[in-house]
Specification:
Helix content: under 10%
Number of helices: 1
Largest sheet: 5 strands, mixed
Strand order of the largest sheet: 2-1-4-7-6
CATH architecture: Sandwich
Number of strands: 10
Order of helices and strands: EHEEEEEEEEE
Distance between the termini: 11 Å
Number of domains: 1
CATH topology: Immunoglobulin-like
CATH class: Mainly Beta
Amino acid sequence: MKEKVSIVVMVDAVGALSDRTLHNGNLSLVDDGSAGSLHQGTPDLITAVVPGQVVQWTPIHVDVQTPVEIQSIEFLSGAAVAPSDDPGVPPYPAEPPAVPAPDATDSNGHENQDLLVWEGVVPYSMIPGVPYRYRLALKLHEGPNSVLHIESPALLRV
């Protein structure tokens, strides 16, 4: 298993700002994990991870004129995802797990080739087979309506 899994956050900033959403093909999440992540290339990416592994998120804008940066990554309370029709997503207990959600926001960002990269470490307290959803907030350009978010991606301890 790799020590680090990288998640690339590709954003069509012009499309997202025009549509006021990260859906409609404006966001694509992919990772380089080797543990069988699900829904590659969609906003619904479920990244397979192991405890102690570093997860790194890197934003990339497909429009060269509109900068994109990660404003925050926040794991949702009761972070488990509802069961899916996808047979690759295991069911989870009816009640959300009684463990704190993983926290990637303590890592701050660090500069990497002019991209603001966020990193976090997968905690050992994550329950195997339970997807932990997170809210990904992206800042596109400047202004009062420049921050958009999505709550569909997740990490899954395998």
